[in-house]
Amino acid sequence: MTSMFVFLAFLGLHSGFKQMCEASDLPGLKIRLSTKGLDYVSNAALDVMTSRLSGQSIDDYHGQSGKTKYDITGVRITSFNKPHSEATVAPGSGITWTLSGGSVSIKGDWHYKYRQNRFIKLSDSGSFEASVSGLDIRISITIGMDDSGQPTIHTTGCSSEVGSADVHLHGGGSWFYNIFDSAIERSVKRNLKNKLCDAAKLSIDKEGVERMKSLNLQVYFFANHLMLDYRLVAPPKFTTNYLESFHKGEVFLKGDSREAPFQPFPLSGDEPSESHMMTFWASDYILNTLGNLLQRYGLVHYKLTNKDLEAYGKPHLLNTICPGHVCIGKFIDGVSKQFPNSSVIVHMVSTQGDFPRFTMLAGELRGHISGMAFFSVRTPNGSHVHMFRAHVNLTMSLGVRMGDDRVKAKVANFRTKMKLVHTNIKAITEPELDAFFKLIADTWIIPKLNELGDIGFELPIFDDFHFVNPEIKIQKGAMQLLVDFKYL
User: What's this model's pTM, rounded to 2 decimal places?
Assistant: First the structure.
């Protein structure tokens, strides 16, 4: 039960960080939980509560009627029959969980002492069984955030009602002592009401608090150097049909909280989808803050050599001479003539001030990287000679999928365009260079991008939830991900 309502609380946090709201109140990620999702959560929570209550003990009761003292001890719940469960969003406040029409079976022991005077003393004992029906519970839960930015959760109220109890006594003179049925019924009903609320409140106010503290809203990746921030930027939206939360969705370098120099576009306000339990809107802002960060710290560069290409089946591609193989010398004749029996190094670096950008359009995710490629050669005597440099434009279309509870991507289409800036090679043309660089892209750049895309990025979810039945739609400015989820 705790996991379920902590999950709901995460979606309905009341406030974000003040400093982030001041910087931008537009989210890079929006999450909406539909009534279908809310129904699933409440019923899954009920399954947990059912297993939790079975075997629970109820406080002993001691009473007296006239000269008769009686004790009801060892009372325990032997079964809990699930009531109807309904969780609703209380606009502006939190969540209300209502259980109605439940029943429990109870066993316990009874004992009595009767004393008329010092000479007349009677006592007896036995066991009893009781079936209690008409259980109704209503729990109010509020949610918020502490000073460190972690979500908080606690109950603000709990009420319960117990209908009737059918008591059967066994042992001793039980046939005679059924006059004590009403005393046992009163004891069971009173203690059971308290037990139901105590169990619910304990789950939220103790275990729920611990779960909230463990919720990871800052996802580290790239060897823990980068952090994807899922903290809130605005209060949630509570309606009778869904609850909605708004998250930062920005990538930061570990230890550096500087904001990106641009803002996300407003996310869609589509009508609630009842076909799935949950809907994510992930803005292209998330990817663009990553590109901006990589550019800011000069991380978009690479020196490509034949050693890099060995794992991709082209260990000779950067040779100037390659009998029986494909290499740069066969694409650009001037390279093989001026620098025979040498190997080429391609230093690729993004253009200063132009970070890798991603754009989401209707049905398509596009990427664009602009930079320079410096081609140098290592001669047989070990010297390095600059050959030429060219401006490079890389554009791509990406297919997006869901796997292992992560959003993953794969290059669907890739185009290169080269423009010579300077050359020391006497005979070289841009079509030759384009053709060779396309081979580099097919051999190494695209597979590398696909390796990164297969790692993907996490969405904010608890460890014991699993996404199922995903459906992805690329819209203008954002990816819409519709999912169901399963509690593990």
Answer: 0.82
